[in-house]
Amino acid sequence: MKIKGIEASQTWQIRHEVMWPDMPFEFVQLEEDALGLHFGVFESEKLVSIISCFITNDEMQFRKLATLEDFQGKGIASKLINHILELAKQKNLRKVWCNARSNKKTFYEKFGMIDTGEIFSKEGQEFTIMEILL
């Protein structure tokens, strides 16, 4: 398993397949993708998990964390989260946050992230904002 920086366009297929398979492919292409840092986990040269990070001032938002179904439950996404938290510390950022699907909240709590209580819905999915102060 290897974590590498990737292009935004390399994230789109996994975002679509894992997160929004019923939406048009363009739905997973973010306007701000060109401004982000994107990372992927490779298993034997196959891209299996992705995350996108957006830094504004002293904060990093990560978005679109997704792992192909056959590779879920193996700690791959956890390695990606730890990777970006380390990156945030190296960049002396104050906070890392995300819009987490509410049913995945306990996953993010494992990293010390807390639920801010800010909840919203998008395309029938409920999200809550999770954050960690560094």
TrEMBL record:
It comes from the Bacteria. PROSITE patterns: GNAT (PS51186). The keyword Transferase applies. SUPFAM superfamilies: Acyl-CoA N-acyltransferases (Nat). InterPro entries: Acyl_CoA_acyltransferase, GNAT_dom, YpeA/RimI_acetyltransf. Signal peptide: none annotated. Residues 1-134 form the N-acetyltransferase domain. Keywords: Acyltransferase, Transferase. One of its GO terms (molecular function) is acyltransferase activity, transferring groups other than amino-acyl groups. This is N-acetyltransferase GCN5. It comes from Flavobacterium aquidurense.
